[in-house]
Amino acid sequence: MNTGSCHCKKVVFEVQEPLSAVNLCYCHSCRHLSGAAYSVVARIPKNAFRMLKGKESLHIYESSTGKFRHYCRDCCSPIFVTVKSQPEFVRIRLGVLDFNPVVNIVGHIWVSEKPNWHTINDQLPQYAEWPDTI
């Protein structure tokens, strides 16, 4: 079973592979809400995501209009993101997966907001904001 969980294990969910291609996001919101140089998120169909326990432990924060970030209320682990304009998808935080998924990292987005203390050391495409292909 492909599960993910928060740090305190009060929230547990299951995902079905395959995961979408992944862009590393350097936008201001993702950096502040993850505490890292970029966030790593894969988009999956909503019907490929199932909460196993802890739905009552989720806190939902609307970080920008129509973008909802779901966190564990107790340990504050970021679990997933939903977007009002794409209700058929869930965006999973890869750092909370309890298995090693097959991941295809295809690029870097919002590089215009990348912190100067982080260096990109690969040859993947870099986009100032959103590429037209997402």
UniProtKB/TrEMBL annotation:
Q: Which Pfam families match?
A: GFA
Keyword presence, Lyase: yes
Q: Which Gene3D superfamilies match?
A: glutathione-dependent formaldehyde- activating enzyme (gfa) (3.90.1590.10)
Give the highest taxon in the source lineage: Bacteria
Name of the protein? GFA family protein
Q: Which family does it belong to?
A: Belongs to the Gfa family.
Please state every residue range assigned to the domain named CENP-V/GFA: 2-118
Cross-referenced PROSITE patterns, in alphabetical order? CENP_V_GFA (PS51891)
Supply the source organism for this entry: Marinomonas sargassi
Q: Which UniProt keywords apply?
A: Lyase, Metal-binding, Zinc
